[in-house]
Write a structure and sequence with these properties.
Udp-n-acetylmuramoylalanyl-d-glutamate--2,6- Diaminopimelate Ligase, Chain: A, domain 1, five-stranded mixed beta sheet
């Protein structure tokens, strides 16, 4: 089994040409022709994550977010990115990342989030013009029965294991049709409006963006890590399905860089 074999099994459902122009999905560190025996799967690559790979004798790391997003001008111990790259090279660990190509796949990040919430009749929120059924941004789905806004917020918080949610003003509307986008989905709010969604769930919403819905839907910021965390299980499932005997496991290292302080009443 080679690194390229593992890469190809994921790109079968999320081809690299589906990534955004600013992205850097694909091989980050290592040789595509190198033998791969064990993969550690994570949302992010940190120095601690590489340490876990070393401890577990993993020779491949598969992440959602690219470790190398912008070009490296040097390789010194100054940043966690450089230290992680250097440590991976020293220990012959290859790193591949499946980012916006997996975000944009119908079988990707937003679909998994929608299924976690129990949404049905799924379709792409902003479909691509050349292949609208296969890839595009976000997802739209429906609950079997409408629910109160507070019940919807409670469901979201429970399913994504979030201690708190930011949201726009409650309007006393029922929630049944939901648009969502795992990760940073503020550019697709107009699509949620056009789809006449009752709610839009995403992450990284800026303060002024909460005014945009103007009561047309409930805008919910569930957190970047929280709305993309199930990508780890998705990648692991894709690899194990294609190569049942290959050792692929989800990392134990916590990589969420955001922590919450919840004030006690």
């Amino acid at each position: 089994m080679t690194v390229n074999d593992i890469l190809n099994c994921i790109t079968e459902v999320a081809p690299l040409q589906w990534q955004e122009s600013y992205d850097n999905a694909g091989l980050q560190v290592g040789d595509l022709n190198a033998e791969a025996h064990k993969a550690l799967i994570a949302l992010d690559v940190t120095e601690e994550l590489v340490d876990e790979a070393i401890a577990k004798n993993s020779d491949l790391i598969i992440s959602h977010h690219p470790l190398i997003f912008k070009g490296l001008r040097h390789l010194t111990p100054q940043t966690y990115i450089e230290r992680a790259v250097a440590k991976a090279i020293k220990h012959d660990i290859a790193i591949i990342s499946m980012h916006t190509n997996l975000d944009n796949s119908y079988l990707g990040v937003s679909r998994v989030l929608a299924e976690r919430l129990g949404l049905k009749n799924l379709y792409i929120l902003q479909p691509a013009t050349d292949d609208p059924c296969l890839y595009g941004a976000g997802m739209v789905g429906e609950f079997d029965q409408p629910m109160e806004e507070a019940d919807f917020l409670n469901l979201v918080a429970e399913r994504i294991a979030s201690p708190c949610l930011r949201h726009s003003a409650l309007r006393g509307r029922k929630i049944q049709k939901v648009a969502l986008c795992g990760g940073s989905g503020s550019p697709f709010m107009d699509d949620a409006i056009r789809q006449k969604a009752d709610a839009y769930l995403t992450a990284d919403i800026k303060y002024h963006d909460f005014f945009i819905p103007e009561g047309r839907f409930l805008l919910v910021d569930g957190g970047h890590f929280e709305t993309e965390q199930f990508t780890k299980e998705l990648i692991c499932e894709l690899v194990r399905k294609k190569f049942p005997t290959f050792a692929a496991e989800i990392a134990e290292t916590e990589t969420n860089s955001v922590h919450y302080f919840v004030r006690k009443k």
